[in-house]
Amino acid sequence: EAERDCLTARAGAELSAKLCRRQDINEGAAQPRRAAVFNPYTEFKEFSRRQIKDMERMFRLYDSGRDGYIDLMELKLMMEKLGAPQTHLGLKNMIKEVDEDFDGKLSFREFLLIFHKAAAGELEEDSGLLTLAKLSEIDVSIEGVKGAKNFFEAKVQALSSASKFEAELKAEQDERKREEEERRHRRAAFRELKSAFTQ
What is this structure's pTM? Predict the structure, then answer.
């Protein structure tokens, strides 16, 4: 009985603390915590799956340290390969422009933020980030509902982007199935050939 009362009191205190925090957030006295898991497809809805995959491929290409970040030297190499070398100070300013956690390097989320800001027209004309967005061959035009002139156009665009997302997802699944089928056929042909030699 006493143990159950203790558990109830502990659960009550935990629930009370959560409710107080929720109330503080609702009243603007506290900031909500960012989700621990970053999902680019839900956070950056203006980009298609294909665009995000392309940006992820590009991010991995220049993340030579394979640590999930593009640091100053990797960004320097990236800008040089894109044909727009920057000064040390210019590179630092580029990182500072989208560095939300102030760690001096770009996470994949911050990398996507470059293209988000470029698409929304939030980057300065002489910004190195705008140059990066333009030279990276990734179309940064916004496909979502932001450019819609009225409610009905926005609805149609939202529906088409959702169906486009599903179509891309299905195309990726079909591609995987086709590759698996090819693998199976190659294995079967190999087994057939092997059995001919072993007899």
Answer: 0.54
